[in-house]
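Late entry, written up from scratch paper. The run itself happened at the end of the previous shift, but nothing got recorded in the book at the time, so transcribing now.
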Amino acid sequence: MSGLEIERKFLVKKGDAYKRAAFSSSHIQQGYIPAEGATVRVRVRDDKAYLTIKGKSRDGGMTRYEFEKEITLDEAAHLMQLCQGGVIDKHRYLVKSGSHTFEVDEFHGDNDGLVMAEVELGSETEDFVKPDFIGPEVTGDPHFYNSHMLAHPFSTWKELVPEEYR
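Output as recorded:
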């Protein structure tokens, strides 16, 4: 897959409402290969692996170019050796809301306590229905970029987030 990715990110309220609403869940581990001017991610999601290259964000962090290709688990294992700063470990829950699917990520390790949701859109002005557990928008805030959280984990700045979202 390649093309423009348009997504918005939100904090998720404490509790397990998103888990009860989910129709699917998976375990994800991902690392980042240093690159100038792009984000290069290696991801293992359950029994599949992907190489993703994302361009710089524009429009307040909502839109950027994305290229993604499925790779073998063996290729992912080798590429993970090129990743720096550790690995992001999380569980992802898929929640249907209106005509959209929210991806809710529950982070582990040094990012434990952070739960965020993303929704992909067809345009920057597209309307969508937010589930009740969705909180404030954090689109474009670098604190909430997975690649940023490797060097600056949630455990070091969680007091910046309101109590009901950590």
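The first helix runs from residue 17 to 21.
(Scratch paper discarded after transcription.)
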